[in-house]
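Q: How do we represent a protein-ligand complex in a form that can be generated token by token?
A: Start from the inputs.
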Amino acid sequence: MFDVVIIGAGFAGSVLAERLARLKNKKILIIEQRRHVGGNCFDYVNDHGIIIHRYGPHLFHTEYRQVFEYLSQFTDWQLYEHRVLAKIDGKKVPLPFNFESMEILFGREKAQQLEKKLLNYYPYGTKVPILELKKNQDEDILFLADFVYKKVFLHYTAKQWGKRPEEIDPSVTARVPVLLGRDNRYFQDPYQAIPSKGYTKIFENMLNHPNIKILLNTSYREIMHFDFQEKKIYLFGLLFSGPVIFTGMVDELLNYEFGVLPYRSLEFHFKDFDLPFFQEVATVNYPNDHDFTRITEFKHIHPVENNKTTVVYEYPRAYVKGEIPYYPMFTDEARENYEKYREKAKQIPNLILVGRLADYRYYDMDDTVKRALEVYEESFS
Ligand code: FAD
Ligand code: UDP
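Then emit the structure tokens for the protein with flavin-adenine dinucleotide bound:
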């Protein structure tokens, strides 16, 4: 009945389903444990006509033209450049921390001195990860690096990951570098936009094909069996020898044989206000106060003209089995264990791993789409 089985209807699974159905005329079964498609990118319109991102704010940005063009087949876009402020010492300053943030916090004179010093070492516009800036020996730059480290990164990272910045992979804090310039946008990618009707519509358009059947509200574990000894996969008790694309957690897939992989979870608290706007920009980060990390106001992302607004507070949590593993945790030990899972998974020749969880990578949406398109090329074209 089916040529390919895909587990998970997030971007990884949906891109592959779309490509295989449309270009290869394959019959696809998608198995998704949630009640909707879209994975963590799922959004919906609330009672106030505001598009809400159910699993946290999702801002599309990419340097990959092919990813933008691919997705443009399924949506129109509204130009949108994300702005983030961080509350530091009672003031709200732009993030990534930049020359304007210095001016607000240190005053013009001191900020200009620091600016000059920085530009002796780095060209204008450079993005310097905080852990790199901390290695600079210059006394003034070290003062700045220590300030930013303590006021922007230390406590936020403790809340988000339960760890110090040095204890996690440096690429994580490098996502928000110190920016030696005045560009106040959170991302500098050439393509930045928001799907006009939200992300869920993208998925509905991608998956709207007669060859694609979707089984929602079903874990693959209810209807599939992976036999790693025999190196075979069973669907509804019958041997299934077509490709199986897996986008879930590999430790769960392999019955935790090499231990539980660490993940980090989040709790989202949504609140409505009878106000046209709650805050100045879409996201305000609270590195040093409160248990939540940031507040995002959706109206800044998807504008609507009315006097109601909805925001979401993000409370990071230790991951507990059965909850949503929002973030893989990037420690050396975790990566080593993940590699053991990946090697073992290779023993089943028709099993393909792809996606943020299955690849155990900090993929943004564009990285996920790019990887899925690569897997399509590598394995199917
Ligand atoms: P997912 O979206 O997680 O999809 C995997 C799917 O598999 C899920 O639907 C899951 O239910 C399903 N599944 C898992 N296990 C099973 C099972 N046992 N049986 C059946 N189905 C199963 N990216 C950006 O580019 N910009 C952003 O601003 C941004 N913000 C983010 C904010 C947060 C809080 C998070 C967590 C992520 C953010 N991302 C952002 C990243 C983005 O969400 C991911 O890149 C993308 O969702 C990954 O797609 P995926 O298909 O790999 O995974
Ligand atoms: N970070 C921080 N303070 C901030 C913003 C980010 O310490 O105000 C660190 C933190 O470790 C975070 C990482 O930088 O997990 C990446 O931030 P990003 O905003 O990219 O996280 P995401 O949106 O993926 O949750």
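The pocket of flavin-adenine dinucleotide (ligand 1) is lined by residues 7-13, 31-34, 39-41, 55-60, 219-221, 247-248, 266, 326, 355-357, 363-366, 368 (CB under 6 Å). The chain has a mean pLDDT of 97.
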